[in-house]
């Protein structure tokens, strides 16, 4: 008993020091990783002595959260994730650990059952099962709050919304139970922090905007879908996790393509692949876009990359990437059929490699456009898609992948943006030459028409003009140069004497 009491004292001392270190890390502006790492070390020592200590487990989860090790938090509390299916063989082979006990949440719906990367999430069934299996004591409320924050940073927005909502309700219930014996002055001092509530409101706003974008795209309003997704991607209430931002970029690319803006759609696919080069929906979308504008060699390069990903998935028995990162509705059971269709598509495109690029579709102008329309479209695209501005989106995105850093994302985004920028310049030069040829043809046609009209007018004037009568002078011998009888008859006929028109005649003298 003395040994047990001594261990309890040591554990309590470790936990107190860990709490103090976490408080120091929380008070720092950018987070103190050294203090959080020290707290994690102290908590690990306490867990070696008491592996089932609830306080030690909570401090360990919060220390991992402070160190931005969100994947470790998800692995630690995997049974509490609503969309986690531990019975799946693919998840079992890819996950690092899975608890052997009964999961608190066991919904019969996997994330891969989603129809797409912009799918709306129905959390009613998850909430029902969650609240039916939640303990009435509410002592494990920290699990939902901490795991909800980790799921947000991992891009699992639906899971984060359900977990944060559950944790807030459990915290409110525990606060009401504990506040029965409190004095009135202690309510303000012991009020719970509002960070989780603010994060929950932010997650709900993002999900509503994404659902509105999907509804607008289904209704045939791609402009509205672009507006909603742009608000999501340009949020100023904090950074976005890169898995969620990647899915939103691919969704906005689909909206741009529906609106006939191929260059903007390709730019969004480039950004998505800069964040996650193994994101299958982004590769599919960019390959389709490049094929639609006639860039067959570049399309073949993306399809070859996609084929390599399919080969790796069939070899490993799972989709590429970690198990917690969704692949936009792509299921492992569909990979074999997609691989066969992709091989046939590649063979068909190799025979079309000589086809030129449709620059009209790339710049979004019609054939026979005017110079003003072409210059306006080119100016808007070059100002929006120039390589210097292509890396600005990375400042608002939070990377949670251990194998990629911000510099690598910027370099890849700049390279892909430079390639698209050069393609736009080539398209502008090609279409401008066609516009100049059409203008020269129209100008030459106008000149020929003007010359023909002038010739016809001159001919008509020559036919209807009165001839000029020269002044006659007598010769040296006093004889007229022309017969007066012929001249007189001509003047009388033109003057109107034969039609009865009075004409004023003047005397003619030699």
Question: How would you describe this protein?
Answer:
- This protein has 510 residues and is mostly helical.
- The protein is 64% helix and 1% strand.
- The protein has 20 helices and two strands.
- It has helices at 2-27, 33-49, 54-66, 70-76, 89-94, 124-132, 141-153, 157-178, 186-189, 195-218, 222-233, 242-258, 262-275, 280-292, 296-316, 335-350, 359-363, 371-385, 406-464, 484-495, and strands at residues 240-241, 397-398.
- It has a two-stranded parallel sheet.
- Helix 13 runs antiparallel to helix 19 (406-464).
- The longest helix is centred in the C-terminal third of the chain and has 59 residues, at 406-464.
How much of the sequence lies in strands comes to under 5%
Number of strand elements: 2
Largest β sheet strand count, sense and barrel closure = 2 strands, parallel
List low-pLDDT spans.
85-121, 131-137, 478-482, 505-510
Q: Which percent bin holds the helix content?
A: 55-70%
**Whole-angstrom Rg:** 40 Å
C-alpha geometry? elongated
Order of strands in the sheet with most strands:
1-2
Helix and strand succession?
HHHHHHHHHHHEHHHHHHHEHH
Count of alpha/pi helices: 20
Organism: Urochloa decumbens
Protein name: J domain-containing protein
Kindly list the characteristics that best describe this protein.
510 residues; mainly alpha; two-stranded parallel ribbon; 20 helices; disordered C terminus
């Amino acid at each position: 008993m003395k040994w047990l009491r001594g261990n309890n004292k040591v554990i309590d001392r470790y936990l107190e020091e860990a709490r103090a270190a976490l408080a120091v890390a929380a008070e720092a502006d950018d987070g103190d990783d050294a203090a959080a790492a020290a707290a994690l070390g102290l908590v690990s020592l306490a867990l070696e002595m008491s592996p089932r200590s609830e306080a030690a487990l909570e401090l360990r989860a919060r220390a991992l959260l402070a160190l931005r090790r969100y994947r470790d938090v998800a692995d630690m509390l995997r049974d509490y994730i609503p969309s986690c299916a531990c019975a799946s063989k693919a998840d079992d082979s890819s996950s690092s650990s899975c608890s052997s006990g009964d999961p608190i949440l066991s919904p019969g719906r996997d994330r891969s059952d989603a129809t797409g990367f912009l799918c709306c999430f129905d959390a009613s069934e998850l909430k029902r099962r969650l609240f039916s299996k939640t303990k009435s004591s509410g002592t494990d409320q920290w699990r939902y709050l901490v795991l909800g924050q980790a799921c947000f940073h991992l891009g699992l927005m639906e899971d984060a919304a359900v977990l944060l909502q559950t944790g807030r309700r459990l915290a409110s219930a525990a606060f009401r139970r504990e506040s029965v014996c409190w004095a009135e002055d202690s309510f303000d001092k012991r009020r719970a922090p509002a960070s989780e509530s603010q994060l929950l409101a932010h997650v709900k706003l993002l999900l509503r905007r994404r659902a509105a974008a999907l509804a607008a795209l289904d209704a045939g309003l791609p402009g509205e879908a672009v507006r909603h997704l742009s608000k999501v991607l340009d949020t100023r209430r904090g950074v976005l996790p890169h898995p969620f931002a990647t899915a939103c970029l691919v969704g906005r690319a689909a909206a741009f393509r529906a609106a006939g803006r191929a260059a903007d759609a390709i730019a969004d696919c480039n950004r998505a692949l800069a964040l996650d080069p193994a994101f299958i929906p982004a590769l599919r979308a960019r390959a389709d876009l490049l094929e639609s504008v006639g860039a067959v060699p570049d399309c073949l390069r993306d399809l070859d990359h996609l084929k390599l990903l399919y080969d790796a998935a069939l070899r490993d028995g799972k989709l590429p990437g970690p198990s917690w990162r969704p692949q936009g509705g792509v299921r492992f059971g569909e990979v074999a059929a997609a691989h066969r269709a992709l091989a046939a598509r590649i063979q068909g495109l190799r025979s079309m490699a000589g086809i030129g690029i449709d620059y009209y579709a790339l710049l979004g102008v019609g054939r026979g456009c005017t110079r003003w329309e072409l210059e306006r479209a080119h100016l808007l695209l070059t100002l929006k898609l120039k390589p210097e501005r292509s890396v600005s989106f990375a400042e608002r995105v939070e990377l949670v992948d251990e194998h990629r850093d911000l510099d690598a994302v910027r370099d890849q985004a700049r390279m892909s943006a430079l390639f698209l920028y050069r393609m736009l310049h080539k398209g502008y030069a090609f279409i401008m030459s066609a516009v100049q040829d059409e203008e020269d043809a129209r100008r030459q046609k106008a000149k020929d028409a003007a010359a023909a009209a002038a010739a016809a007018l001159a001919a008509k004037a020559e036919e209807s003009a009165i001839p000029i009568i020269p002044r006659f002078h007598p010769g040296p011998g006093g004889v007229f140069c022309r017969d007066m009888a012929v001249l007189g008859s001509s003047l009388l006929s033109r003057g109107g004497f034969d039609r009865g028109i009075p004409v004023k005649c003047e005397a003619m003298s030699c």
